[in-house]
User: What shape does this take?
Amino acid sequence: MKKLLFLLLFFNHVFCISPDHGNANAMSENPKILGYNYFPEELSPYVSASEFKQLTDHTFFCTHPRSGTNLTLEISCYLTRRPHYWNRENSSFWQKVTLHNRCMVDLDYEQFPFFCTHLVHETNQLSRRNQLITTLRNYKEIFFRGSSSFPSQHKMNTYFSYLKLFESWDSENRMMVKYEDLILRPFEVVKEIGDFLQVSEDRVDQLISEYDIFKENILNSYSNSPRTGKSYTRGKSLDFHRQKISPDVLKKVDEVMYRTNPYLFEKYLAHYREVE
Assistant: This one.
């Protein structure tokens, strides 16, 4: 009996195929990612950015921090049951996400994952045949979050870099989710995300029916995940940060943002101008 067990273990070790843990190029022989479980658990450089350039038909989230990223991502995970990866650091590698599942449903770890990042440069190298989802929030709410200083030109340029990326994407493969819509008309946004990701109406209706509980669960998870920071407003205010800033300063920010990129400002941001 012991000999039989030994032989079984031996053949299992010899013939079972597993991912190459030590080789960052282990995926190069695979034209597509095989699913979330393709990658090993322990931290290592799973997939280099150069290999991501070969991918098509995947979904990437590239968003400005504090613009509704987590809620948009978790809505997408709920609707599709797909897990996700994060590339949070300025790194040439993408790593498996280690955060707990926050969307209240069992995920299918054999599906293609979502890929989420705040890094525009890495995302800009991808094929436009992939799907891109980005989020948009009033730039003044972002600039004055935890700060009363006038935003630097670098911050303004960074904000516009996400819009430039979105503009460069094939129109049929891109989606923009506005933070204000997430707060004021969440059910419509859920339906729009469902349409973009081609999920069933039953899934959409299911999320809508328990959306308040779902959203509260996401908000409560911030305290458990230090890397995601915290929500100051818990989705209950659209002007929480800029209301602390004088109207003259806010108007000056509008002026400088317009001068930085008049075309993108008028196309995407004009409705954020301060009302006279």
